[in-house]
Write a structure and sequence with these properties.
Blueprint lengths: L9 H18 L1 E6 L9 H8 L2 H4 L2 E6 L4 H9 L5 E5 H9 L4 E6 L6 E6 L14 E4 L4 H13 L7 E4 L5 H6 L5 E5 L3 H10 L4 E5 L10 E6 H6 L1 H20 L1 H11 L5 H15 L2 H6 L6 H14 L21
Parallel strand pairs: 1-2, 1-3, 6-7, 6-8
Antiparallel strand pairs: 3-10, 4-10, 5-8, 5-9
């Protein structure tokens, strides 16, 4: 006797097909990515990864949430509010010294973005020209805190400048009015301040710390040791999709700027595109070109740790191998 084969009813076949279609969405890993601040053009790589389906293809559903500072983003990962964070590597080192078990898994600002915007009429052509000048800064700004280390590397007296302490919102008016000759910032601020300075008839000149030998790591992708150990495949998929988003944004800053404008109508697409181009210069260092986007050099990580340790009077030494890993970077 021939064996009988039972075929499902048509309705069951349709149901099965529907389940197969929705299964990827049902199976996606939901994760939160915490930013260092409100969403801006500098974050376009993550939103490009989302808009282009890079996260979805890796089986991820990523909720990108704004942050409230570099230190805050590290803490959000530590307490489980976010699986991943885009935060400052120096802040991670400090957090590690306090017992927070987190690591950098891909470096994005591989070139230090610290800068002073100086008035052209102040004739600050090199760090030594800062002597006797006034610099505007919030009290706890990282650029201000790192200034003595920068002065040491650049070969001038850090005490030769005068600090004028103001809230962040008062920095531009302070500089434009001539009450100070320079203000602190990250290079990512150039598209915004240059536009406003031009409208005010003020010519500005950037003084980038990295151009004078002070080049340490800044923002990176972060996660906890627990996530790395318990969900290595999740980490690998997240890093791969995020870096693909970065590359896509770098290849077409204009399109990335439009993605940001559509998601955040208050943002200017042109300004966002300019920020993407600046992130590209920070990310594509010689190390990144040789070893791949996101690569973290042990030597530069050690240098960053020593600067942070001295700047913030860190009492506990942190083994550098505990602060980063390159194991999740794409091999191709």
């Amino acid at each position: 006797m021939r064996p009988r084969f039972e075929f499902p009813a048509l309705g069951s076949v349709a149901t099965l097909a529907l389940l197969l279609l929705v299964w990827p969405a049902l199976a996606a890993d939901k994760v939160v990515l915490g930013l260092d601040w409100q969403a801006l053009g500098r974050h376009a790589g993550f939103f490009t990864a989302k808009a282009n389906g890079f996260y979805e293809r890796e089986g991820l559903e990523v909720d990108i949430q704004r942050g409230y500072g570099a230190a805050d983003s590290v803490k959000r990962v530590a307490v489980g509010e976010a699986a991943f964070a885009f935060g400052d590597y120096g802040s991670l080192i400090l957090a590690r010294a306090e017992g927070i078990k987190a690591k950098a898994i891909a470096m994005i600002y591989a070139r230090g973005p610290y800068v002073l915007w100086t008035r052209q009429d102040a004739r600050i052509n090199s760090p030594k020209d800062l002597a006797g000048k006034s610099i505007g800064s919030p009290a706890g700004a990282s650029v201000r805190l790192l200034f003595p280390a920068f002065a040491s590397v650049a070969g001038f007296d850090a005490n030769s400048v005068k600090w004028v302490t103001v809230d962040a919102a008062a920095l531009y008016p302070l500089l434009f009015s001539g009450q100070v000759q320079a203000i602190v910032d990250y290079e990512l601020g150039w598209p915004t301040i240059s536009k406003r300075a031009s409208e005010a008839g003020i010519a500005l000149v950037p003084l980038k710390f990295a151009d004078y030998g002070f080049d340490i790591y800044s923002n990176a992708l972060l996660t906890t040791d627990e996530t790395i150990t318990g969900k290595p495949d999740l980490v690998r998929r997240f890093v791969r999709a995020s870096l693909n988003g970065m590359r896509a944004a770098f290849d077409n800053p204009k399109a990335a700027g439009e993605i940001m404008r559509k998601s955040f109508p208050m943002l200017d697409a042109g300004t966002a595109a300019e920020e993407v181009a600046i992130v590209h210069t920070l990310a594509e260092t010689p190390d990144a070109k040789q070893h791949g986007l996101g690569y973290i050099s042990r030597e530069k990580a050690e240098l960053t740790k020593e600067v942070i340790k001295k700047t913030y009077d860190m009492k506990v030494d942190v083994p550098i191998q505990d602060t980063f890993t390159n194991e999740f970077l794409p091999k191709d």
